[in-house]
Design a protein that fits this description.
By secondary structure, this protein is of the alpha/beta class. 38% of the residues lie in helices and 20% in strands. The relative contact order is 0.14. It binds nicotinamide-adenine-dinucleotide.
Length: 499
């Protein structure tokens, strides 16, 4: 990691749409401003895709699909490996771009996001020629086997919280399985997706296999979700927009995969390794300014250790270094937009209106050097399980604390929300670890750690956190259809209608 980073945003940024291997302007000429969340300054204006641009990108992907899906799988894998190498070689530039665009501290983009991005492309590159079907035992005289075939053209729609990483989560398994992609990044943070498109062009992906079209959700996103030429939508975003995607998909009954919101319960038992739990719980909520669907945003503390835990946890929260994301010493940057900062701050009043107690934070930092940016102090609020702050996704550095007496009570609280994405527990009891992990209603559970992800491990939720999985072999199943083929190899078998 560089010890100093040039903080002047003078990068040569690609601002056009990437369609059929060309960078082009939007047909209608609309543009959208991209701001630096550290100080609200203008980073660039990007071309904004309208419906005609979506049509062009889908047509390019459709044209590319026959050759791409029939290309030997190891050749597809080789190209994906090359893209991973190109992103890794671009580390200095792309991490700075991501930090400027999103507000993520450079220490995180540089030490976490880039590795996860590259690792996901590499994992899926390796899986490309290992997508096997199976042979099924059926009646004698028949051979039945199941092929996994690509679904076709995949539209990917992603949010603004981990834009670089989401390119890999959505593109890598889709491409490895032989699909062609039209990706719509979030309008707030399109820059690293366009950078990866540029790198894909450099390493030689055939035209139309990857298309990247930043644009508004209500225009480009909606049109993509309704499009008759799209076979699947892979969506990451909020639960309300997830519902709209399901409705829009009904035009041609395309497949839908939904990675939606979360309200993760992070349970600390009285037999937990306490210092590890304090540090891990801070990472669970304050990493990426709490803008993570899998954030541990509900801290549930056993009453016996609650006071001791809170004393340490509040002290840690107050010591987190907030500042310019490009400063390598910064541990927490700004939120990604002014609108989102205002929404997060509004939850302080929501909490106190219902009797919640703000233990620290709850406001913007009182620092002149951060006054123009979208900063929020690490916030800890003691609240009751049914309060709005314990039920609604705040999506910021805002954690609720609730005390519990025993396992039965904590499971009721943990499972008492509409979401079911991630959850965790801290305990030194192996039996409790297994027992409670099995009972938490969620797609992922972490024991004595939090927010671990890996390309081989399936990522996704249950309930109103959505369905389908990113990563793991499970994602390959989500990007392929099972085709059952029957062969009659016994000429003696009589047909039903014999004349
Ligand atoms: P959002 O739902 O507002 O937007 C997500 C994407 O959908 C954006 O690209 C947006 O332009 C697009 N969009 C908006 N309206 C659309 C429409 N009508 N049709 C099609 N596309 C449309 O979410 P956000 O505010 O960008 O991101 C935050 C949300 O994402 C949070 O709820 C968070 O939990 C969720 N999220 C989930 C995961 C996960 O894997 N489960 C990961 C990260 C974020």
């Amino acid at each position: 990691m560089p010890t100093t980073v040039d903080v002047t945003p003078t990068l040569d940024i690609e601002t056009r749409l990437f369609i059929n291997n060309q960078f082009v302007n939007a047909v209608d000429g609309h543009t959208c401003k991209v701001l630096n969340p550290h100080d609200g300054s203008l980073l660039c204006e990007i071309q904004e895709a309208g419906t005609k641009d979506v049509d062009a990108a889908v047509a390019a992907a459709r044209n590319a699909f026959p050759a791409w899906s029939k290309m030997p799988a190891n050749e597809r894998g080789k190209l994906i490996y090359k893209l991973a190498d190109a992103i890794e070689a671009d580390r200095e530039y792309i991490c700075k771009l991501e930090s400027l665009d999103t507000g993520h501290p450079i220490r995180d983009t540089y030490n976490l996001d880039i590795f996860r991005t590259v690792a996901t492309f590499r994992y899926m590159a390796g899986i490309a020629d290992k997508i096997d079907g199976r042979v099924v035992q059926v009646d004698p005289g028949f051979h039945n086997f199941v092929l996994r075939q690509p679904v076709g053209v995949v539209g990917s729609i992603v949010p603004w919280n981990f834009p670089m990483m989401f390119v890999s989560w959505k593109l890598a398994p889709a491409l490895a399985a032989g699909n062609c992609c039209v990706m719509k990044p979030a309008e707030l943070t399109p820059l690293t997706a366009l950078r990866i498109a540029k790198l894909a062009q450099n390493v030689g992906f055939p035209p139309g296999v990857i298309n990247v079209i930043p644009g508004r959700g209500s225009v480009a996103g909606q049109h993509l979700a309704e499009h008759m030429g799209v076979d699947k939508i892979a969506f990451t975003g909020s639960t309300p927009v997830g519902r709209k995607i399901v409705q829009a998909s009904s035009t041609n009954l395309k497949r839908v995969q939904l990675e939606l919101g979360g309200k993760g319960a992070n349970i600390v038992f009285d037999d937990a390794p306490l210092d590890a739990a304090v540090g891990g719980s801070a990472f669970a909520i304050f990493h990426n300014q709490g803008q993570a669907c899998i954030a541990g945003s509900r801290l549930l503390l056993h009453e016996k250790i609650a006071d001791e835990f809170l004393e340490k946890f509040i002290k840690l929260a107050k010591s987190i270094k907030q500042g310019n994301p490009l400063d390598p010493a910064t541990e927490m940057g700004p939120l990604t937009s002014a609108g989102h900062r205002d929404k997060v701050l509004s939850y302080s009043k929501v909490a106190t209106d219902e009797g919640g107690k703000i233990l620290t934070g709850g406001k913007a930092p009182n620092r002149e050097d951060l006054a123009q940016g979208y900063y929020v102090e690490p916030t800890i609020v003691e609240a009751k399980p049914n309060d709005r702050v314990c039920q609604e996704e705040v999506f910021g550095p805002f954690v609720t604390v609730t005390r519990f007496k025993d396992e039965a009570e904590v499971l009721k609280i943990a499972n008492g929300v509409i979401y079911g994405l991630g959850g965790g527990l801290w305990t030194n009891s192996l039996q409790r670890a297994h027992r409670v992990a099995a009972e938490i209603r969620s797609g992922m559970v972490w024991v004595n750690c939090y927010k671990r992800v890996s390309p081989g491990s399936p990522f996704g939720g249950v309930g109103e956190s959505g369905y389908g999985r990113d990563m793991g072999v499970e994602s390959i199943h989500d990007y392929t259809d099972a085709k059952s083929i029957w062969i009659n190899y016994d000429a003696q078998i009589p047909p039903f209608y014999k004349r």
